[in-house]
């Protein structure tokens, strides 16, 4: 199981600067499989962090591999932190918020932020039950009212995750996985727990 901890570096115009190490706590845990396709919507690729301090908002998005987020804000004024773990399409996989955050808490240990999948509303509904949310379908250009946007017999999920053999374009009916469509469950998942 992959565990990601991120360092939040905060600098100020004064000589004193603080840092907070925060560890997202994912509920349920992040998937542990290797992702076959670059377009796999289950693959975390970026972290968006937003701080509120002195009635001002500071935010940035970093690649997941960086593990360091740096802000220049006055020390001791941070009031809240919000984080979103994003996939390749820029859609939320997990979100978490923590209020009443202080530098003292971060300096004395790791600040834990509980992260959960977004509520299944708006862009995070899977209307056609193909395993892809509306947010992912919009980013891929697939139909959110059709399990198989290109009509090739493979669900959109199977094509973007490689669940039926290889990664293919879910919008191109001439490009489809090498395996059988029967390898994919109707809900977009694949046999074997993918």
Question: Can you give a write-up of this model?
Answer:
The protein has 194 residues and is mainly beta. The chain folds into 2 domains: 6-115; 121-188, no CATH class. 9% of the residues lie in helices and 31% in strands. It has 3 helices and 8 strands, in the order βββββββαβαα. It has helices spanning 103-107, 134-140, 156-161; strands spanning 6-11, 18-26, 44-53, 56-63, 68-72, 78-87, 92-99, 111-115. The strands form 2 sheets. The chain has a 4-stranded mixed β-sheet. Strands 4-3-6-7 form a 4-stranded antiparallel β-sheet, with no helix packed on it. Strand 6 and strand 7 (92-99) form a beta hairpin. The protein starts with 5 loop residues before the first strand and ends in a 33-residue tail after the last helix. The model is unreliable at 1-18 and 186-194 (pLDDT under 50).
What class, by secondary structure content? Answer: mainly beta
List the total number of helices.
3
The whole-number mean of residue pLDDT values reads 77
Pick out the low-confidence regions: 1-18, 186-194
Report the order of strands and helices.
Answer: EEEEEEEHEHH
Topology (SSEs and partners):
Layout (H helix, E strand, L loop, with lengths): L5 E6 L6 E9 L17 E10 L2 E8 L4 E5 L5 E10 L4 E8 L3 H5 L3 E5 L18 H7 L15 H6 L33
Question: How would you describe this structure in keywords?
Answer:
194 residues, mainly beta, 2 domains, four-stranded mixed beta sheet, four-stranded antiparallel beta sheet, 3 helices, 31% strand, disordered N terminus
């Amino acid at each position: 199981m992959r565990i990601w901890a991120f360092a939040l570096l905060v600098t100020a115009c004064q000589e004193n600067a603080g840092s907070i190490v925060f560890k997202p706590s994912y509920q349920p845990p992040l998937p542990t499989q290797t992702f076959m396709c670059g377009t796999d919507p289950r693959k975390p690729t970026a972290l968006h962090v937003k701080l509120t301090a002195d009635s001002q908002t500071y935010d940035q998005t970093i690649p997941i591999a960086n593990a360091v987020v740096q802000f220049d804000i006055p020390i001791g004024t941070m009031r809240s932190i919000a984080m979103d773990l994003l996939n390749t399409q820029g859609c939320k996989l997990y979100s978490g918020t923590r209020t009443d955050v202080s530098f003292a808490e971060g300096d004395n240990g790791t600040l834990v932020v509980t992260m959960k999948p977004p509520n299944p509303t708006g862009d995070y509904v899977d209307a056609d039950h193909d395993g892809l949310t509306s947010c992912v379908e919009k980013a891929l250009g697939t139909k959110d009212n059709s399990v198989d946007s290109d009509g090739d017999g493979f669900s959109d999920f199977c094509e973007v995750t490689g669940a039926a053999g290889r990664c293919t374009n879910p919008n191109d009916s001439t490009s489809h996985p090498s395996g059988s469509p029967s390898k994919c469950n109707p809900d977009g998942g694949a046999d074997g727990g993918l």
